[in-house]
Amino acid sequence: AQTVTRGEDGAVTVGGIPVGRLAEEYGTPAYILDETDFRARARAWRTAFGPDADVFYAGKAFLSRAVVRWLDEEGLNLDVCSGGELATALSAGMPADRIAFHGNNKSAEEITRAIEAGVGRIVLDSFQEIVRVAHAAQSLGKRQRVQIRVTVGVEAHTHEFIATAHEDQKFGIPLAGGQAAEAVRRALQLDGLELIGIHSHIGSQIFDMSGFEVAAHRVVGLLKDIRDEHGVELPEIDLGGGLGIAYTSDDDPREPHEIAKALTEIVTRECEAARLRTPRISVEPGRAIVGPTAFTLYEVGTVKPLDGLRTYVSVDGGMSDNIRTALYDAEYSVALVSRTSDAAPMLARVVGKHCESGDIVVKDAFLPADLAPGDLVAVPATGAYCRSMASNYNHVLRPPVVAVRDGEARVIVRRETEEDLLRLDVG
Ligand code: LLP
Q1: Cα–Cα distances in Å, from 342 out to 249, 345, 346, 389?
Q2: Any idea of its EC number (predicted)?
Q3: Index of the ligand 1 atom closest to the CA of residue 123
Q4: Residue 385 near ligand 1, beta carbon < 6 Å
Q5: Are residues 160 and 68 part of one domain?
Q6: Pair (300, 281) in one structural domain
Q7: Is the CB of 88 under 6 A from ligand 1?
Q8: Is 356 marked as a binding-site residue?
Q9: Residues 163, 75 share a domain
Q10: 225 and 85 fall within a common domain
Q11: The ligand 1 atom nearest the CA atom of 204
């Protein structure tokens, strides 16, 4: 877990550094990321799956060059889904053959760059893309390793916008109606492609393992059909990411070793029943690795009690550094971290500084009634999909990511400046 403790004066320290010092040195808001915790989580996934499986960290959750180097050192692979993520991975020295390239609408230029770089796999998302990637590879005189992403038709229990295995959405090719089988037929015919496996990602922030089990069952079913029709046993399956983390104390996440055990068992069992060689399994956790490793440090600006309702606590960031509450109705907790307080708890809503009333960071939380401007508060579990989905709404500058480790802090993504904003404005 994150190395967070309270010192004798009541102030919180992270990785051995008091939050007050972090705020002074790096300003607020800031994402404070515990490198030790990140590496431990990455390693736990790697160890749980062992040498016969691959763990691809999903870069969309949070990507920077430092993170790419940590992943490389810890033996993880990387999933990217845009030219920008690919460029970041390559510039930090991730070997291309350990990169998987995703996306439902990769541009011709992105496809060419990925093939030229030598990415380990491209995950194909449509019939048109099967042809595009095959042609691009052929014209570069290469044979590209690919997987086909299928939708297995399970309803993952999560927010509609982050569920991806039901059929009525943009990702993947449905197993239903023989469409995935037809995609496999086409891919196997094209010289530019080496079809290495089938991919399924059922959604994100999921706690119930049953969706993964159904997905594994159906993907193995497709492998069997492929063997029966083509005499080919595809050597790999990827079961995507999506494991949930604890945002509040109500959430009870599975550990990597439980997930590894469940997935390996079901795939092995199903393959034995179908007399298939067990394929190499890969997974793509993003949130489960980086999510719990960071918190956002804010300074309280104004405190506005509304009689009979609640107290609005405005912090110096908001929906530009954490859109998840507004977008998914996500739940977060918050704590006063610059001191302790014996004051009675008050019902508070932590809001940002943006010009809209939906700019909420934490909907309902109890904070001490003596909370005052200048206090520091922390919102935990903001490592995933907060910096990576941050915006410049209202021309607010995106916060830095500060990595802490063994009593030392360093900026791995710096705070945006007004010059950064103005540099793009060339009118
Ligand atoms: N693999 C694929 C193909 C994916 O599309 C995703 C996430 C992952 C892996 C990683 O999923 P994770 O383990 O991080 O749940 N912005 C949303 C989450 C969108 C997830 C998109 N795809 C959020 O803030 O909850």
Answers
A1: 22, 9, 12, 36
A2: 4.1.1.20
A3: 3
A4: yes
A5: yes
A6: no
A7: no
A8: yes
A9: yes
A10: yes
A11: 15
Distance CA 200, CA 347 (A): 42
352 is in an annotated binding site: no
In eight-state DSSP terms, residue 279 is P
The residue assigned the tokens 């002074």 is 24
Q: Give domain status of residue 405, yes or no.
A: yes
Going residue by residue through the chain (427 aa), what tens digit of pLDDT does each one get? Answer: 556 788 778 889 998 899 999 999 999 999 999 999 999 999 999 999 999 999 999 999 999 999 999 999 999 999 999 999 999 999 999 999 999 999 999 999 999 999 999 999 999 999 999 999 999 999 999 999 999 999 998 876 666 656 666 777 899 999 999 999 999 999 999 999 999 999 999 999 988 888 888 999 999 999 999 999 999 999 999 999 999 999 998 888 999 999 999 999 999 999 999 999 999 999 999 999 999 999 999 999 999 999 999 999 999 999 999 999 999 999 999 999 999 999 999 999 999 999 999 999 999 999 999 999 999 999 999 999 999 999 999 999 999 999 999 999 999 999 999 999 999 999 9
* Helix spans in 190-280 (H): 210-230, 256-273
Is the CB of 381 inside a 6 Å radius of any atom of ligand 1?
A: no
| Residue 374 among known ligand-binding residues | no
**What residues form DSSP beta bridges with 53?**
281
- Please tell me if the CB atom of residue 205 comes closer than 6 angstroms to any atom of ligand 1: yes
Is 386's C-beta closer than 6 angstroms to any atom of ligand 1?
Answer: no
Tell me if 410 is assigned to a ligand binding site. no
Active site members: 355
Ligand 1 center–CA 182 separation, angstroms: 27
Rounded CA separation 38/410 (Å): 15
Clarify whether residues 281 and 324 are in a common domain. no
The interface pTM score, or ipTM, of the predicted complex is 0.99
Q: Residue 278, Cβ neighbours under 10 Å: how many?
A: 17
Do residues 121 and 249 share a domain?
A: yes
Cβ neighbors of 57 (< 8 A, separation 6 or more) are: 42, 67, 71, 76, 77, 78, 79, 284, 285, 286, 289, 290
